[in-house]
Design goal:
Pfam families: RVT_1. This protein is α+β, with helices and mostly antiparallel strands. About 35% of the residues lie in helices and about 20% in strands. The chain is built from 6 helices and 11 strands.
C-alpha cells in the first residue's frame, strides 16, 4: 500500500523566523562574521504599501513597518535560505516516510504491506510534520493539505481508514503537485485533458 500527504504551507517564505534560520546557519558552519552578515541581510528591513490615487494620479503610501519574519522574495538568496530552513525536515521523517521537497511544496510518501502498520505510519508522519512545522514557526494549512491513496489502475478505489488525521486533512482522489495533476491511479488522462483544453483556447 502506498499513500501520500501533500502539504500546503501558509505564506511559507513570509513566516521564516530570522532567529531560527540564523541558528540553523550556525549549525551548518555559517558562524561569526558570516552569520552576522546574514543577520544584517535579514533584519532591520522595512516595507510599506503604495497605491495610485485614481482621482489626481498621486501616490498614497502607508506608514513604514519593520519586517520581523521572512526571507526577501524576488532575491537570489531567498529560495536558498528557505531550503536551508527546511533542510532538516527529511531527516526527522525517515524511516516512516519518503519526503519530496521542492521549495515550499512539501510532500511525503508512505508505504507498508500491512494495513494496520500503514495507518500507523501515516498518522506518525503527519504528527511529525505538524510538530516540526509548529517548532519552526511555519503554519500548515490543514484545509488545503491532502492525503491521497495510490492504487493500481485495474483495482477499485478503496478509501482506506487513515486514523486520527482523517478529521484534520482531506482524503482526495487527485492533487495538484508542481503543476501536475496526480491521481490515485497515477495515470495522466486528467492532466493531459486539462493541457489539451488550455491549448484549444484562443490566445488573447
Amino acid at each position: 500500500m502506498l499513500g501520500g500527504i501533500f502539504c500546503d504551507l501558509e505564506k511559507a517564505f513570509d513566516c521564516v523566523s530570522h532567529e531560527v534560520l540564523l541558528n540553523k546557519l550556525k549549525f551548518y558552519g555559517i558562524i561569526d562574521i558570516k552569520n552576522n552578515l546574514y543577520r544584517s541581510y535579514l533584519q532591520d528591513r522595512f516595507q510599506r504599501t503604495a497605491i495610485m490615487n485614481g482621482l489626481d494620479n498621486n501616490k498614497v503610501s502607508s506608514e513604514w513597518a519593520i519586517i520581523s519574519n521572512g526571507v526577501p522574495q524576488g532575491s537570489v538568496l531567498g529560495p536558498l535560505l528557505f531550503l536551508v530552513y527546511i533542510n532538516d525536515l527529511p531527516m526527522i521523517l525517515q524511516p516512516n516516510g519518503v519526503p519530496l521537497l521542492f521549495a515550499d511544496d512539501e510532500s511525503v510518501l508512505i508505504s507498508h504491506a500491512n494495513p494496520i502498520q500503514f495507518k500507523n505510519k501515516i498518522n506518525a508522519v503527519y504528527r511529525t510534520l505538524d510538530n516540526w512545522f509548529k517548532k519552526n514557526l511555519l503554519s500548515l494549512n490543514t484545509v488545503k493539505t491532502q492525503y491521497i491513496n495510490f492504487i493500481t489502475k485495474n483495482n477499485k478505489l478503496i478509501q482506506r481508514e487513515i486514523g486520527d488525521i482523517s478529521e484534520i486533512i482531506t482524503s482526495a482522489k487527485q492533487v495538484e503537485f508542481l503543476g501536475l495533476t496526480i491521481t490515485t491511479t497515477l495515470t495522466w488522462e486528467t492532466y493531459t485533458d486539462s493541457i489539451k483544453t488550455n491549448c484549444a483556447q484562443p490566445a488573447i
